[in-house]
Write a structure and sequence with these properties.
The structure holds 2 protein chains of 2 kinds. By secondary structure, chain A is of the alpha+beta class. In chain A, 12% of the residues lie in helices and 29% in strands. The mean pLDDT of chain B is 93. Chain B is of the alpha+beta class. Chain B has a 6-stranded antiparallel β-sheet with strand order 1-12-3-10-6-5. Classes of the chains: A alpha+beta, B alpha+beta. At the A-B interface, strand 5, helix 1 and helix 2 of A face helix 1, helix 2 and helix 6 of B.
């Protein structure tokens, strides 16, 4: 087990969006499922600030291999993702490496909102509000390629700040993100990227105002 | 207490239970430390067991039953996962449970929530104050790196077993596969997080006799492994045994401690109650 600090590490990218093979705005509150190949670099941009991008990765060659929050945390010895963090699978293998990060801290513990968990967290009547897990499910239903609800494992919340206190409490702090901040990761295997651009309106994870993100992909240099 | 008196199921041949008392012939619980039995109505006992260190097992537990888990050695760890017995797609969800209760540890009052917004189990008694919900699980690679190898051919049942393999075997008995393995709860372990986000494993957290009780709020499949915690710095593979005592405690009453603990917990228990109207 290698232990790396998980404290905020800011590093700007040298990549030029003019050279990207994909560069698209992704609207607030919507899902997307797309492929990133081994060696390609994916950048997610928080266009207006304080937006949570809820992301799960799957190995395209073996859909039973998915992002694992716990393996990622155990291997790096801590909870936050930042520059240098290796995003690992349930087999402990590197899926992607964070190679640039102007936000500096991303969440592994907060998970994705769901109609059902909204009934618990806020009020029983909240179940008809749009949620990340509805987004995930419709993306998987449309793709119909063997991924189902059982594959909706604990996700990464890019741009979200969820600290744990010394006393063992979980806090939802104001984001460390801001308009135009981004995180960039190099794929270490061929992956599916499943994103819900979080539609949560009940808590400050989106500053009560879900906003778009930008998705940019580069081929290896 | 002398837990050495407890028969080791690996080496002791126990008599078959008599037909008149099928549930608990060995009565392991009678040799659990007395303080760990506080609050249990022993007239409602279902069974008791001793899970040896490094071992794994699973049970189908009905709503309204409870298991009292007892650390029989200091430094015990029990990795635990829960699936609904009615619909296995519904399972314990670490992030949903943590964020709903704004917690990164479990103790009396907390509930273990499913991904469907229901309480699967409630922590109804606890002598320890902190059980680890952050989900670290010992796998074979990490186990070999930390401890080297001790395989069956040489060591027989003293072989090193990982928590991950143990849980995979157990959930496999119900048709669940590695894609279904969820982040477990590690009973009896404490992992803190510092300001930089780094883990700190508390050595010697659980003492012999420490206990924690889960009341099951819906019908569940419960799988456990008593392999060491993945972050345990002990360089020696030294898994500890854990006692289990199952009893019929009844479903959560209206004035339940866990319902009152947080409004979120009241709603999660309400959502479970709606399954059993």
């Amino acid at each position: 087990m290698t232990t790396t600090a998980t404290d905020i590490r800011i590093l700007e990218s040298q990549l030029n969006p003019a050279n990207a093979v994909l560069n698209q705005r992704h609207p607030a509150g919507e899902p997307i499922l797309f492929a990133v190949n081994k060696g390609q670099t994916l950048r997610i941009v928080d266009l207006e600030g304080n937006q949570a991008a809820d992301v799960i990765f799957y190995n395209r060659d073996d859909l039973a291999e998915h992002y694992s929050a716990t393996d990622t945390m155990v291997h790096q010895g801590g909870i936050y993702l930042t520059t240098g963090s290796v995003i690992r699978s349930n087999d402990g293998r590197p899926m992607l490496t964070i190679v640039a990060d102007t936000c500096g801290r991303h969440d592994t513990l907060g998970g994705a909102c769901a109609a059902e968990s909204n009934t618990v967290r806020y009020a029983l009547q909240k179940k008809y509000m749009h949620s990340c897990r509805d987004n995930y499910l419709i993306a998987l239903q449309r793709a119909d390629m063997g991924l189902t609800k059982r594959d909706l494992v604990p996700n990464i919340n890019f741009f979200m700040n969820v600290p744990v206190t010394e006393g063992g409490d979980l806090k939802f702090d104001d984001g460390v993100s801001g308009p135009g901040k981004y995180v960039e990761m190099r794929a270490e295997m061929d992956v599916w990227v499943l994103i819900s651009n979080c539609p949560q309106l009940n808590n400050p994870c989106n500053a009560y105002n879900p906003t778009p993100i930008q998705l940019i992909v580069w081929n290896p240099a | 207490m002398n837990t050495q008196d407890l028969p080791d199921p690996l080496t002791t041949v126990l008599p078959n239970p008599p037909q008149a008392a099928p549930v608990d012939a060995p009565a392991f619980w009678q040799r659990f430390p007395a303080p760990a039995l506080a609050g249990v109505d022993t007239s409602k006992l279902m069974w008791s067991e001793v899970v040896p260190g490094g071992s794994h097992w699973s049970w189908r537990m009905p709503r309204g039953s409870a298991i009292r888990f007892v650390a029989l050695d200091a430094g015990a760890n029990l990795s635990l996962v829960l699936y609904s017995a009615l619909e296995k797609l519904e399972r314990y969800n670490m992030p949903d449970s943590l964020k709903a209760q704004h917690t990164a540890h479990y103790t009396k009052g907390h509930v273990l929530m499913s991904d469907m917004g229901r309480s699967m189990a409630s922590v109804t008694a606890d002598s320890l104050g902190w059980h680890d919900p952050l989900g670290a699980l010992l796998d074979n690679e990490l186990m070999a790196t930390k401890y080297g190898e001790q395989r069956y051919e040489q060591a027989r049942n003293a072989m090193y077993r990982s928590g991950k393999d143990g849980l995979l075997i157990e959930i496999g008995k119900y048709g669940l596969t590695r894609r279904d393995l969820i982040a477990p709860v590690n009973l009896f372990s404490k992992v803190s997080v510092d300001a930089q986000g780094r883990f700190g494993f508390a050595p010697d957290h659980a003492k012999a006799g420490d206990f924690v009780e889960l009341r099951f709020d819906m019908d569940v499949i419960l799988a456990v492994s008593s392999a060491p915690h993945a972050l345990d710095p002990n360089p020696v593979y030294a898994p500890k045994k854990v006692g289990l005592l199952a009893w019929r405690c009844g479903a959560a009453p209206a004035d339940d401690f866990c319902r009152a603990f947080r409004p979120e917990n009241a709603r999660a228990l309400h959502n479970s109650d709606m399954l059993y109207l």
